[in-house]
Write a structure and sequence with these properties.
By secondary structure, the chain is α/β, with parallel strands linked by helices. It has one domain: Rossmann fold, CATH 3.40.50.150. It has nine helices and seven strands; from the N terminus they run H-H-H-E-H-E-H-E-H-H-E-H-E-H-E-E. The chain has a seven-stranded mixed sheet with strand order 3-2-1-4-5-7-6, with helices on both faces. Helix 5 links the parallel strand 2 and strand 3. Helix 8 packs parallel to helix 9. The longest helix has 31 residues. The N and C termini lie far apart (109 Å). The N terminus is likely disordered. It is found in: Golgi apparatus membrane.
Length: 295
């Protein structure tokens, strides 16, 4: 005999009400998940406090950073010569780290490291000096930062090269670069740069990323001239290592072939070429071969 109609069945919710509750629960969970994702992504994209961006270039223009394999080649080059006299055209956190690499090797060595950076960016120079002042890269006494003004835009590369080829003053230097009459020579640089003997020279500046920006014609020519005079000053036995970045660009490729020479290319990684320059070459020319044919 049935008396009350089943206690369990009477406690079950109607299917429609149960479905509504399930939808509300899932909607609430989805909303909470969305809030968590939004909070996480906004925190990740918020600007980080200071930043001396490795990709920032002189005059506020973009400069391509060294790729991992290019930086590895550059680091191995400096490590092999350290402690040495290192000259760098260009300035970024990646390049500044080479100073630490160089100066860190003079502990227990009879030689002292010296690193000099040349940049046209006041912002980069100030940032580097702040890092050096805090002891973040190397001892400030072994690292110098020099400002330079580059007068020639990248668009002038071919006319300048034509004039240089016709000028006896632009042939292989026989004396100090500071007294050169070649318009490509950066004779306004400090004596500490032009009269010194260098073991390694790196060219990664100025930007040269656009036709109207300062090009690297002068820095590549000056690097080649300093390498020749440094090798000659060492008695002709020592070689000077020169690295040029961004050789995928026309100006860097032209001028590297013209003044650092195909015969001297010993390694390449990505957009970085490594030349080893000695004193043995024609007395009135940079390269053993004739000038590069540019079509």
């Amino acid at each position: 005999m049935h008396t009350g109609g089943g206690g369990v069945g009477s406690r079950m919710l109607p299917p429609k009400q149960l479905l509504t509750i399930i939808i509300v629960i899932f909607s609430t969970l989805s909303f909470i998940k969305l809030l968590l994702l939004t909070s996480s992504s906004s925190g990740a994209s918020s600007p980080r406090s200071p930043a001396w961006d490795a990709g920032g270039g002189g005059n506020g223009t973009a400069r391509s950073a060294l790729a991992a394999k290019e930086l590895a080649l550059l680091r191995s080059l400096v490590t092999a010569r350290a402690p040495c006299r290192l000259l760098v055209f260009g300035l970024s956190p990646q390049l500044l780290a080479l100073a630490r690499l160089n100066s860190g090797a003079d502990a227990g060595s009879g030689a002292a490291a010296a690193t000099a950076f040349v940049t046209d960016s006041a912002e980069d120079a100030d940032a580097a000096r702040r890092v050096l002042g805090g002891g973040g890269a190397a001892r400030a006494g072994s690292v110098a930062v020099h400002r330079a003004r580059y007068r020639d835009a990248a668009a002038e590369a071919w006319p300048l090269l034509r004039r240089a080829r016709g000028s006896p003053a632009c042939r292989r230097p026989t004396g100090t670069v500071r007294k050169s009459g070649c318009p490509l020579a950066l004779t306004s640089l400090p004596r500490e740069v032009l009269d010194a003997r260098w073991d390694v020279v790196v060219v990664d500046g100025p930007s040269g990323a656009a036709a109207g920006e300062p090009g690297r014609m002068g820095t590549i020519y000056t690097a080649a001239a300093l390498a020749r005079t440094s090798a000659a000053a060492a008695g002709g036995d020592d070689m000077v290592d020169v690295a040029v970045h961004d050789v995928d660009r026309t100006v860097e490729r032209w001028y590297a072939w013209e003044y650092l020479c195909e015969d001297n290319l010993v390694a390449a990684k990505g957009r970085l070429w490594h030349f080893r320059v000695g004193a043995s070459s024609p007395p009135d020319a940079f390269c053993n071969t004739g000038p590069v044919q540019i079509l």
